[in-house]
Amino acid sequence: MLPRCEIKIHPDKIDSRLGSVKVQIRTGLSQLFSDIKKHYLASWIKDNIQKEECCFYVQGDREGVCMCGYLKIHHVDDSIKPESNQAVTWDRHNHVRQVPTDAFGDISFGGLGQKTGKYVRVSSDTKPEVLYQLLTEHWKLPPPNLIISVTGGAKNFYMKPQLKAQFRRGLIKVAQTTGAWIITGGTHTGVMKHTGQAVRDYILSNNSTEGQIVTIGIATWGVIHNRKPLVHPQGRFPAYYSQDVQTQGHMSCLDNNHSHFLLVDDGTNGRYGVEIELRSRLERLISQQPLGNKESGVRIPVVCVVLEGGPGTLNTIYMAMLNGTPCVVLEGSGRLADVIAHVAGFPVAKVTLSLIHQLLKRFFCQEYASFTELMVIEWTKKIQDMIQMSQLLTVFRISEDDHGDVDVAILQALLKANRSSGSEGRESWERQLELAVAWNRVDIAKSDIFTEESQWKSSDLHEAMFSALLGNKHQFVRLFLENGVCLRQFLQEDTTLCHLYTHLPTSCFFLRLLVKRIQTERTAAPLNISLRLVSDEIRHLLGSFTQPLYPLPGLAISYLKEDVSVNVSIICLDCMSAALAASKILKKLAEEDEEEDDEAKEMRELANYYERHAIGVFSECHSCDEDRARRMLIRSSPSWGHTTCLRLALEANDKSFIAHSGVQTLLTQIWCGELAVDNPLWRVLLCMVKFYWNIVFYFGFLLLFSVVLMIDFQTTPSWRECLLYVWIFSLVCEEIRQLFHDPDGFPFNKKAKMYIKDMWNILDVLSILLFIIGLVFRLTTSLFYAGKVILCIDFIIFCLRLMAIFIVSKTLGPKIIIVKRMILDMFFFLFLLSIWVLAFGVAKQGILINNEDRLNWIVRGAVYEPYLIIFGNMPSDIDTTQFDISACTVNGTDPLKPKCPVLNEDQRPAFPEWLTIILLCVYLLFANILLLNLLIAIFNYTFQEVQDNTDNIWKFQRYELIKEYYSRPALPPPFILLSHIYIFIRRLVLRKPLQGHQTFKEELSKEEEEELLSWESFMKDNYLQSTRQQHSQDMDQRQELTHPGHALRFSVQVSQSAEALQWIMDALKSQGFNAIIDAPQLASPGKHCKDESADPKTKEVEKKSYHVNARRLVYPGSNITRFPVPEEKVPWEVPDLNDSYRHFHGPHDFLRKPCFLGTGFNENTFFFFCRTGMRGRGSLCCLGPNHILELVLTRYEASIGSVLEFLSVWNREESLWELPGVSSVGGALAATWGEYRIGDTWDDEQLYVLQVYEGYVDDIRNTDSAWLETTVLNIHLDRTDHQLADINRMVRTQYSHPSYHP
Q1: What is the DSSP string of 314-337?
Q2: What is the pLDDT of residues 980-990, one digit of tens each?
Q3: H or E element in which residue 359 lies
Q4: Could you tell me the pTM of the whole model?
């Protein structure tokens, strides 16, 4: 026996405690998983990321402060040594060591902006590969499609409100649409602050963390203010950072609007610029990553956005442009940005030292005094080089008439740089298109890629089309379809379509249906979707009346995007059937996905869009050729399961399409017996008489039925009653024929469902069943009268069935539809009314009558009498003044009288009269006034709603009636039994199929099919063109009315018109024509017109530049920079240069190398004019001229003799084509190329040698003391020359390096 427990717990408390335990367990598991992730991240960071700390204390200028910038107390014990007291020079490379980082985790800011972010303290020598792995794998950032490196002024500066707004809006838009990473300095000052405020505005306006803008701040650890809370050996999750700008002094606070921080540490404190090199290396690494994880050769692009800025910014953007990074400069942001923007459109020769002096003085104001002459020279040279790289420089200017934003300027700058990157022709356009698709900027693709210059084939766009479909970028899909993508070619391989279905969005309801079907069939995994499964699912959605079809439409509707799906249907040959089929599929999906209201609503809206598209195409066809349009309706479509447009519209319940005048004309022709001019009168009468015969005979049936019920209903059936039974039997046979016979080829279950859905068929079945029951009762003696009652009720149903015949009437049909809708509304009203009737009836019965046990009188008192009160039949038993004891029975013994109410001693009613009267008044108030007026309002609403759409509904139901009577046998009941006997003998006895009705379905030959579809495609193009023109006109009108420059352009047009009229008047006067009246005064011409010839920029002729490549700032193969020689100091006509030039010495280390001295040159012979910015030998072989020989080897093409070919080599590193060249020895032209001596071939009569050029070469290796001179020879070879094979072999041998591709 178990021990007795004194603790008692209620079962409800047990459930509540179990629920709380479950919540605690769930919370604990979540916390456990979070702790495991944090522990793993901390372990990985400690193993892979280091920080730097000073390991040798050297006293600086201040007491107790090391030369590294940190206090002595912040150094470890072993770093303070006795030797430090001696005069030792502190060196970062020798006195700084790397240890595992101690600052990482989540950073939390107070106030507005990014609530939490990620941060880590890293060494300045950290490999960028490790940082990229941290960002993408551990911080879970998706790989970027674009890197936006924002640079500029590090101190706070003023920006005009309009420019500030455009910068913020454009920066966020380009980052949001392209999936870009924004990289800044990360502090709360200058351009970084403006970037952070742009992110903050986006977050506040969206009020959601979805679609977070990735803003990475790369800052110097040693200049971060309040960085102590960030330090913890195991990481901070989170670290609460205080942004105290007031007390930061010369330090800087982190910006609270950045999402990620890389804090670069080099072991020093208080020194800015430590992060620049690591930031550059990280950006370079990211730019080498493939775009979109594909091996197409396209890398992640990088763009530099410049605001304001000083000397450091100039060096940053100059080096970025040398590395091929495009830069966008915002004019009006101040200082350096305005200097560059001012000279960006000038020729190089006009950018002189004096102009730069003026601009620096203008835009730098007081800072100009700190610029030395050498700095101005350096700035001039760098700005000149940047202007020459115009393909990498874009200036964004604010204009009142230009509504372009910064985002457009950024993306256009990238495309402009890509076009000039060396890619040839089609490859360049394809890379630009892939970038635009990755950014999801269809506006850029339309304006910059799909231009008249680019001619696209369908195969060229297949890869981009695939990417757009996978990325659910419907606007790009539309653009590709409009520019020539052929779906048949694109989906030629089934694997492409399978791959697209497999990568449908996870939220797609169609994908969930496919997975459900796969799991039901227990076949492959959900990702292995076969076309058979897709085809089966589409056929299920479309309807089993179709045959198996190609699974393309499922792809269109799966994305649930209007542009995608509509364009897929538009591009199909059978576009009208495609639109109607898609409408049917989407409505079916909406029915099966009723749980998702928003998604189902979107499906229904898209289905309506499909229907409108089908109506538009059919309207275009019908207006052009009515006969062809009608054939389109009944044509059997092989692409859509051999069904017809008319059948698809009916299955999709597309009432607007069926109500089209062209469709109704077809139905009218069928209804009137294919009425046409060439039809004889007897044929028209024969086709029309079928319906009217049925009406006349149905009236005869009702007349016979009524006569039997009222006059001739005998115990033994009379001949009239027997005729009625035969008539009913013919109706039963006809209903059975309709159920089993279907010319459309529906299976029986589908036909049965369609039969039951029709309300008139339900009435038919009900009337037949009641007649059978009444007949059975009528044939029995005991239930004879009951049978007659049932048959009388059945007569009512047969009379109601008469309304279905008059649906075809244009006058009565819509009214019958309204009556049907009102009957449905009345059922809902009766539910509300029954509540009040029962409430009042039961209360009244209980108060008045005590223990009534007769059921009939209970129903009469509780239901019937309260119902009659609504229609004005006031009760007399609730008022004692009208009480008559003779009208009731006291004990309920008289079955024909109601039971008397409770009586008192005076034999008067004892119930509270005041209460019953109040109940009656309240009941009348709600039932007669409220509910009846509610019913009237419901009927009025239904009438108005249906009346607006009654015509469409009537026309839609008219089709089914026409089809029913068209397919019926010609004879009316009861003579229709003869037709049924014929059908029975033909089908079951003779086993012969019935002849199908071709009126609603027509099989065309292949030639007729192609001709009709081609015509439909032409009509579809006309419809789309007219739609686009209408849309374009509407947009143009709105833009003209709202454009701020409309008035200015109008005034310019008026001015030009005045000028033209003035010229006409002057010309007429010069011919001797005089006006009758004086001419009106015209406006002065040309006031608002801009004279392009007056612009000095357009008139400036570019002068020849000298030593362009030879003045490249960084000497190749080294870290040594040249002296920046400006353009104006290069020509030899410039006399003496100042001392800064004369005494500048180049890389003396190069002079110490062994060198071959040319004739007349030695190590003491130099040109001190410093035209290239460097003296010495450099990487050339000798001082003075270094001779090379370059060959232009030509031959004629084998098949076409007029095409001249030449040999060239592609240098992958420099991205340019080169001629095969050889270095000569000692300046001799008889050079040796491999084993082939060029000079020995000149006397060969078979070779044609022509000297093309001889002289100086502008090479990047040139210095003032050593330069290249070349001799270019053209050698024309015949394809049969024996030297040709040797030359090919030597070219491949000499240029076998991977950097070259011959």
Answers
A1: HHHHHHHHHTT--EEEETTS-HHH
A2: 888 888 877 77
A3: helix 353-364
A4: 0.63
